[in-house]
Design a protein that fits this description.
It is a single chain. About 55% of the residues are buried. The protein has helices at about 85-95, 135-145, 255-265, 265-270, 300-320, and strands spanning about 20-25, 30-40, 45-50, 55, 70, 75, 115, 160-165, 165, 170-175, 180-190, 245-250, 285-290. It contains five helices and 13 strands. It is globular, with a radius of gyration of 19 Å.
């Protein structure tokens, strides 16, 4: 990275933000998975919901007027409403290790684990789980596997995802500023809208690409007329959702974290067209690991970090689709299989 300008962190993952780890687990037979964002210490967090059909857990606890100011983990999961149970596995794993919110000595702590889900239950995997959906165990496996490195593409919460008409996936990216702040994003891309411009393979996020991280095609192919949505899903395919988490090492108040999340949502609009539709459940969480003070101009710094978060989230969306591969034994269309000349 050029020391005179911002650039990706050493991993180009959200775990470049000091104080964060990520764990993932997936079930190839069910075609689904879970991603867990795990701070080393309880972290201030917030949430912004823009999609018309969200599925969430404990997001009310993150409102700045409420009691709990920090979270123990954040869970992104496939599985629609069944996937909300992934957080149960994370809660029990954390609670067994004495982590969580506590007011009274001598009673179990209560881990605060917000989460959001995407709809991947129509992707052809084996969903005959009767009364035993896999998500609680997937959540536990994901948090237990948390570390600094994790897979992109067909992995974690994005394992069963589709991005418009292309295979979706889990993406991540980071940026480090010249004055030392780090911003990162992780996203499970299961969008109704398209991540590429019509009649080609250029990512909508192309203007924000750093160091050829999703193909280095440039932005010359970005053009679309009214109602030209390219590889977006058709009206009958109406259950989708892109879920994400952005993070920074800055010290944030709950209200500042909320603004950070609100600004980061624009990254989805930069990378997916259309977005925030009635049948999307788009949710962005935000986390501050509390290691660097904002300085003498905190409002300016929040604006700056929020803008960086939006760009970084857009890059993460493209990376998730760029890295996606087919499910074993299938021919599901992937970005890497698109003709280089843009013909269909």
């Amino acid at each position: 990275m050029d020391a005179n300008r911002p650039g990706p962190g050493p991993r180009n993952l959200i775990t470049d933000v000091p104080g964060l780890r990520v764990g993932q687990a997936q079930d190839a037979g069910v075609r689904t998975g879970v991603t867990v964002i795990l701070p080393d210490e309880r972290a201030v967090a917030a949430c912004d919901v823009r999609g018309g059909a969200p599925g969430t857990r404990e997001t009310d606890a993150l409102q700045p007027e409420n009691l709990v100011e920090a979270v123990d983990a954040i869970v992104l999961s496939g599985g629609s409403v069944y996937g909300l149970a992934a957080a149960d596995g994370v809660v029990t794993w954390l609670g067994a290790r004495g982590r969580g919110f506590g007011l009274v000595a001598g009673i179990p702590k209560s881990p605060v684990v917000p989460g959001a889900i995407l709809f991947d239950v129509a992707n052809g995997g084996d969903k005959g789980w009767d009364e035993q959906p896999p998500y609680r165990e997937l959540g536990r496996a994901a948090v237990a596997a948390a570390g600094l490195d994790f897979a992109l593409g067909t992995a974690g919460a994005g394992y069963g995802a589709m991005a418009g008409g292309l295979k979706g996936g889990t993406g991540s990216a980071s940026v480090i500023t010249t004055d030392g702040f780090t911003v990162g994003a992780v996203v499970a891309v299961n969008s109704w809208g398209s991540v590429i411009a019509p009649d080609g393979r250029t990512f909508w996020a192309a203007p924000f690409e750093l160091e050829g991280e999703f193909g280095g095609l440039g932005s010359a192919g970005l053009a679309a007329g009214p109602d030209a949505w390219g590889s977006a899903k058709r009206p009958v395919e109406t259950r989708n959702t892109t879920i994400a988490c952005v993070a920074t090492d800055a010290i944030l108040t709950p209200a500042q974290a909320k603004r950070f999340a609100v600004m980061a949502q624009d990254g989805l609009a930069r990378a997916i067209r259309p977005i925030h539709a009635p049948f999307d459940g788009d949710v962005v969480f935000a986390v501050g690991t509390g290691l660097r003070p904002l300085g003498e101009q905190p409002d300016y710094m929040i604006a700056r970090l929020g803008a960086l978060a939006a760009d970084t989230l857009a890059r993460a969306v493209a990376r998730g689709v760029f890295e996606a591969t087919p499910w074993p034994g299938t021919g599901v269309p992937c970005w890497r299989d698109l003709p280089v000349d843009g013909s269909r």
